[in-house]
Amino acid sequence: MILHELTIGELTAKLASKEVSSREAMLACLDRIDAVDNRINAFISLDREDALGQAEAADAALAKGASHNEQSLLGVPVSLKDIFCVKNQPANCASKILGDFLSPYDGSVVQKLKQAGAVIFGRVNMDEFAMGSSTENSAFGRTCNPWDLERVPGGSSGGCAASVVAQECFGSIGTDTGGSIRQPSALCGCVGIKPTYGRVSRFGVIAFASSLDQVGPMARNVHDTAALLGAIAGHDPKDSTSVPAEVPDYVGGLDVNLDGIKLGLPKEFLGAGIDPEVQSIFDAAVRQYEALGAEIQEISLPHTEYGVATYYILATAEASANLARFDGVRYGDRVEGDDPFALYCNTRGKGFGDEVKRRIILGTYVLSSGYYDAYYIRAQKVRSLIKQDFDQALEKVDALITPTVPYTAFKAGEKTDDPLQMYLSDIFTISCNLTGTCGVSLPCGFTSSPKLPVGLQLLGKPFGEQELLKIAYAYEQATPWHKERVML
Amino acid sequence: MSNSDFDIKYVANLARIRLTSDQEARLGSQLGDILGYIKKLEELDISNVEPMAHAVPLHNVMRADQVQPSITNEEALANAPKTANGLFIVPKIVE
């Protein structure tokens, strides 16, 4: 047994039987980080003492008879994107502007993970303020794709996906505003779910675009993803947009029976722009679903081509408002100026990276006097049309099936000079955020040369995570992809 | 919806971001491309469509007006670049 290779399901069984201690599991992650992270650069920082302290506390609880029935993640090491507030730990959102900020409180997701007994550790890398699709926009250097170090892991939750796939943790929690969980999951070869808007609390998560942001888990298989989601989902009075809906037993709901399941193939997603090898791997996945008993039907999402433009108006507008709080007054680094205006301009000019500046400026422009109706209101109206498309499609089928990304992981530097090309890599993931529905990405094969993972995306109904995970699980159990481990 | 009047200096100033002249040139031209792409939305007839701000219909969420535990003044100021007498310090605003 190689401890760092275990799934969460395997690890909790071994913790329960006392075959393995949480301290040993945590040490296995730390050893693995020491062995590979100088090549991957998934971790921005790590508090080893704190992590081992939590693991020892979990071992003490297990010794006293605590069980995984009450605390589903007891003793399981889980890494966190550098966007979550963890009391007395840094949170930088991979930006320079937060300086030596230490969170004064635990966010709600962090509290829930602690209640579930998870050992939460590390701050994993991301695009600055979650703005990007490659984890290259980080003040802490880029993260490398474990399958090919020359390539990007995707983003913005690239550190989460890389740390899961490089086996530096057993699972990771990220955020998804336009594909930031699903796209890196696809490019690195793990499972990631963006829950329905309102399913998971955003309290204690540094905000990017508040009507689109959602927290979600990434892990080595569907079962582990379901276990993590069950631990973090649920209503939170501290987030007025979180929805008071019951959290089902996601793990208990997993089964391989697809009888009567209808999957919709959006015709607008297919054809132009998809890499031929990705297309043929995707086609094989669709045939596999048919073989498993699902009925496939073509459906139409007529406004698909407007998704990216709509998103980049709404997301940047919301970001320009949210990021106004980084002003050098209450926290973070300050660059002095003679008056408050100069102080703001100097602080933000020095502290933000290029992509963040681009988006704040774009968002400021689309909200500015004279342009508000032409850009912002128009985009909100197109958002309604995109939502109608999804509502109508999801009346006919149980879920939509698409490739997660039109291609495999691209080389570092390939798209950094052309932001628009970078934005278009989110073309299949973005509408799920605009519509507030849920979406999961899971591995569906590998290209042959170079060997790179390909992701399959399933998009489901609002609060339909249980059904969606079940549909993903049936495919996963019938295919070998989730068992592939990277050689490092 | 023309983007020829996009003035990077003016908008960066509204956004309170100091740019170098290099950044003005580079970001300005990239934003020009992005605005060109965004014009795509002009193709659609949206005359009878309601704007959508949120995926979930939202209502005001109220809670009882009761004092709740919160962080202390000291904790709230702990990350501030400059403080004095329990307050954030900024440059003089009024002459």
Characterise the protein shown here.
The complex is a heterodimer of chains A (488) and B (95). Chain A is globular and about 65 Å long. The relative contact order of chain A is 0.14. Chain A has 15 helices and 11 strands. Chain A is α/β, with parallel strands linked by helices. An 11-stranded mixed beta sheet of chain A has the order 1-3-2-4-6-5-10-11-9-7-8, with helices on both faces. In chain A, helix 2 runs antiparallel to helix 3, helix 5 runs parallel beside helix 6 and helix 9 packs across helix 12 (372-396). By secondary structure, chain B is mainly alpha-helical. Chain B has a domain at 8-43. Chain B has helices spanning 8-14, 21-38, 73-77; strands at residues 83-84, 87-88. Helices cover 32% and strands 4% of the residues of chain B. In chain B, strands 1-2 form a two-stranded antiparallel sheet. Classes of the chains: A alpha/beta (488), B mainly alpha (95). Chains A and B meet through helix 9, helix 10, helix 11, helix 12 and helix 13 of A and helix 1 and helix 2 of B.
Strand content of chain B: under 5%
Query: Separation of termini of chain A?
Result: 17 Å
Q: What would the average pLDDT of chain B be, to the nearest integer?
A: 91
Class derived from helix and strand content of chain B: mainly alpha
Mean of residue pLDDT values of chain A:
97
Number of strands of chain B: 2
Largest interface: A-B, 74 and 51 residues
Q: Which structural class best describes the helix and strand composition of chain A?
A: alpha/beta
Question: In this structure, how is the largest beta sheet of chain A organized?
Answer: 11 strands, mixed
